[in-house]
Amino acid sequence: MLRLITLTSALALSTAAALAQNIAVGVSPGEHAEIMEEVAKVAEPMGLTIEVVEFSDYVIPNTALADGDIQANSFQHRPYLENQIKDRGFDLVEIGTTITTPMGVYSDKLENIADLPEGARIGIPNDPTNGGRALLILQDLGLIALAEGTGLVPTPLDITENPKNLEFLELDAAQLPRSLADTDASVINTNYALAAGLDPNTDTIAMEKADSPYVNIIVVRKGDENQDWARKLVEAYRSPAVKAFIEEKYDGSVLTSW
C-alpha cells in the first residue's frame, strides 16, 4: 500500500524530526540508573530520547560531561560537584535537584552501632566529599569528634576525638559493599548498597539524618542550561510518574526533592 504524503504532512514530519532531540545522560549504577530509565520513558513523548550511560565510579561522569561525551549527568550531590569544580576546574552547572539518598552504616558482624568494639575497622569512601560525609555521620552518632571549620569535607586527619580508637579504611565507594567481610562496619552510599542487594531499610545499623544537605542534582556543561532538551530533562525527571515510581520502588530509602 502506498502512503500519500501531502505537503502539509511532509512539513509536519519535517518539523517533528527537527524537534526530536537525542542526549546521553551519565549515571551511577543502582537507583540513579533505574530512575533515569523511567525518566527516559516520560521524555520520549516529549520529543527527547535519552541514552542512559552507566559509570562505575564518581570521577568519570563529570570528566565525560566536560569532554562532551555525554550531555548531562545525574549521580552526584551539590557538595561533590562543588568540590570537583574546585579541584578539576570543570565548567559545569546544576539545572535541577532530584533525590536524596541517606547514607547508611552496614555490617556483616554487628546488629547495632553501639556494639562497635575497641579498634573497629570502619570502611568509608575515599573521595573527599563522600568520605567527609561518612565522617560527619559517625560524628553525629557520637563515635568521633571533628575539628571545627572543616565544613562538609573533613578527613580522618581532622578527627580530634576517637574514644574507641576506630581505624578507617578508605576505599572506592563502589567497593565498600564488598568490604563488609573485611571491616567491622562500612558507611555506604545508597546507590552502591542497592546495587549490591543491601536494603537501606533493614540492613543498616545506623542511618544518616533526614535533614542532610546532600540532595542530588542534574548537571550539564555551562552554556547548555537553557537548552530546550535540558528543560525537558528536568521536567521529565520531576514528573508525577517518576515520583510515583520512586516512592513505590524504594519505599522510603530514596526521597524525592519535589
Provide a count of the helices.
Answer: 8
| Sheet with most strands | 5 strands, mixed
Number of domains: 2
What integer is the average pLDDT? 91
Share of helix among residues?
25-40%
CATH topology of the largest domain: D-Maltodextrin-Binding Protein, domain 2
Low-confidence stretches: 1-18
By CATH, the architecture of the largest domain is named 3-Layer(aba) Sandwich
Based on Cα principal axes, name the global outline: globular
Please write the string of helix (H) and strand (E) elements: HEHEHEHEEEEHEEEEHEEHHE
For the largest beta sheet, what order do the strands appear in spatially? 2-1-3-13-4
Number of beta-strand segments: 14
CATH superfamily grouping of the largest domain: Periplasmic binding protein-like II
The whole-angstrom Rg is: 21 Å
Distance between the termini: 49 Å
**CATH classification class of the largest domain:** Alpha Beta
How much strand?
15-25%
Oligomer: single chain
Structural class designation:
alpha/beta
